[in-house]
Amino acid sequence: MATFPVWPPPPGQEPAASTPEWIFEDPRSRALLDEVEQVAPSDAAVLISGETGTGKELIARYLHNRSARQGGSFVVVSCGAFSDTLVDAELFGHENGAFAGAFGTQVGWFEQANGGTIFLDEVNDLPLPVQNKLLRVLQEREIVRLGGRTPIPVDLRIVAATTVDLETLVQEKRFRKDLYYRLNVVNLNVLTLKERPGDIVPLARYFINTYSKRLGHARATLTPEAERLLTQSPWHGNVRELENVIHRTLLLCDGNTIDASDLRLSSRPASSPAQAVAQARPETEPPIASTAPPTAQPPDPSSADEAALLCQAIQHLCNDSVGNVYQVVEDALFREVFRYCHYSQSDAARVLGVSRNVVRARLIRLGEVGAPRTSPFASTPATPAHEDVMGT
């Protein structure tokens, strides 16, 4: 019988944040953990694939804690968080005077992970020149700092994660084929939350415990109706969306019992980001005539209503004599897509159909993300690991 965490836990029985056996209860998740157990003792490179918010970082931590390197560092690097000009120095370090503002010698994330495991999240965002250097690390087990010439040996395990199909990027010449095969020695696919419904209620209980502690509340319980609604919801945002729902519910709920109505989940299935953008995109060109017989399709009233609301909002801006309507609409578009994608720059770039650098530059201008540092190691390095259980 599955056992669920309680809050507060009994003395001496506090569950480790890096041990997800008590969170992953679905049979398909248990099968994934069994696979992790099999490959953990080796030093083989591992590629973890899955949608944003499915828990790829948690699997990587579990892999590290089941390996012979569990006593070493577990370093998390978000490859999509750095500009192309800084990612080289961040990963491999730099020597004194390697570039303007490079005062002193600084080690990179690979050296910091020496003896342990480095987790390269969003590895698909690495520029090609850095991919070349990463390939050398995998082949020769050594790095060369930016501005240096002396190879530095490193003893570590590389675990990478991606939200996109790397094979497609290889075909498009945007990801090195040899690097792909070097990283993909073992492939672990983390399913979406909807594909592993047995994890939904245990995860919800876990987040109830976590946020009850943070908010200083007594531990709340879920009614059977609330559990049923949680299990039936689509969860397009995966575990991160579930975490946000539980957090919001605890903030707004008055009692210690969470009912279905307290969750405030929409009964209407949410569309994917690509569908939402497609619905809002105006038709600028007439449809191409087709010789095939037309297929009768009932109109989608929800799509028509959303398109009408968008047009109405634009008309209001024009009627109110808002200056630079184009900029106002474009800024709102970037903000909303960024939030819809759970603050993932890579996902927002794919939804908008632009490069991640364009998204990052626009979000910096809007104040949604911080500007890049002038020197990658000018001060104490920012904590690379996200402390949330389901960070990726």
Automatic annotation (TrEMBL):
Matches recorded under InterPro entries: AAA+_ATPase (IPR003593), AAA_lid_NorR (IPR058031), Homeodomain-like_sf (IPR009057), P-loop_NTPase (IPR027417), Sigma_54_int (IPR002078), Sigma_54_int_dom_ATP-bd_1 (IPR025662), Sigma_54_int_dom_ATP-bd_2 (IPR025943)
PROSITE patterns documented for this protein: SIGMA54_INTERACT_1, SIGMA54_INTERACT_2, SIGMA54_INTERACT_4
Low complexity bias locations: 264-281
Region feature (Disordered): 264-304, 373-392
Gene Ontology molecular function, alphabetical: ATP binding; DNA binding
Single Gene Ontology BP annotation: regulation of DNA-templated transcription
Residues covered by the Sigma-54 factor interaction domain: 22-251
The keyword Protein biosynthesis is assigned to this record: no
Coiled-coil residue spans: none
Transmembrane segments: none
Keywords linked to the UniProt accession: ATP-binding, DNA-binding, Nucleotide-binding, Transcription, Transcription regulation
Superkingdom of the source species: Bacteria
Name the UniProt record assigns to this protein: Sigma54-dependent transcriptional activator SfnR
